[in-house]
Amino acid sequence: MKPEDTPTDNEDNLEAESEATKKESDVTSELDSEQDEGIEIEDEKQVVDDKSESMEMEALQAEVADLNDKLLRALAETENLRRRAERDKADASKYAITNFAREMLAISDTLQRALESVDPNARKEHAVIEQLFVGLEMNEREIKNIFERFGIQNIKAMDEKFDHNIHEAMFELDDPSKPTGTVVQVVETGYMLKDRLLRPAKVGVSKGGPVLDKDDSNDVQASETKSQEDIPEKKTAYEDPGSETGAQLDEEL
Predict the structure, then answer these.
(1) Which segments of 95-126 does DSSP mark as H helices, in order?
(2) pTM for the complete prediction?
(3) Terminus of the chain with fewer CB atoms < 10 Å: N or C?
(4) Residue 4 DSSP one-character state
(5) pLDDT digit string (tens) for 148-196?
(6) How far is the C-alpha of 156 from the C-alpha of 167, rounded, in Å?
(7) How far apart (Å, rounded) are the C-alpha atoms in residues 224 and 236?
C-alpha cells in the first residue's frame, strides 16, 4: 500500500509550486522589461537618425544656395567683361586715328600760317604768288574735307564763354566791351575727334567787362584768382602754370 501524503508534504508542494510560479513571473517580467528597453532604444535611434538626416538636408540646401549665388555672380561678371570688351573694341575702332590725327594738325597749322603770312594786296600784284596761294588754298580745302570725313572738327572759340574742357587760356586782355571770361583771341585752333577732345583751343580771355551771370562766371572766378598771382601787369596766366588742359586730356585718351 502507498502511504498517504501528510499535511507537511502538501505544504511543501504548494510552496514549490508558488516559487515556480513566481520565478516564471519574474522571468516574464524581465523579458517584458528587456523588450520595452529595446523598443525605447530603437525609438531613440530613429530620432537621432531623423535629426541627422534633417541636418544633412539643411547642409545640402545651404550648399546649393551658395553654389547658385556663385553661379549668378560668375554669369554677371562674364556679362560685364563681354560688354567692356565690346566697348573697348568700339572705342579702339572709333578713335584709332587719334595719334595720327593729332600729328596732322601740325601740317594744317603750318599751311594756315603760310596763307596768313602774305598780304592780300601782294597776291594781286604778283601773279606767281597768287598762283602759289591758290594751290595752298586747294590743299587747305582738301585737308579740311579729309578732317570732316574722319570726324575731326574745329572747336568754336571766338566770342564764346571760356570752357576749361575745350579751351586753354594763355592770357587775359582788358576789354570792357566783352563780359569777363569771354574768348577774345584765338592763338591756336582747337579740334575734336568725334565726341573726344583732340586738342584744346589756346585762347586769350577778356577781363574787366560786364559781370556774367552767376552760373556763367563759375568757370572763370577760380582761374582769375590764380592768373593774377602767376603773371604781373595785363597779361596773366588764366590757369595754373603747367596745367596744360589739353595735355592732361590727351593722356586720358
Answers:
(1) 98-116, 120-125
(2) 0.53
(3) N
(4) P
(5) 999 999 998 998 999 999 999 999 988 888 888 899 999 999 999 988 8
(6) 10
(7) 9
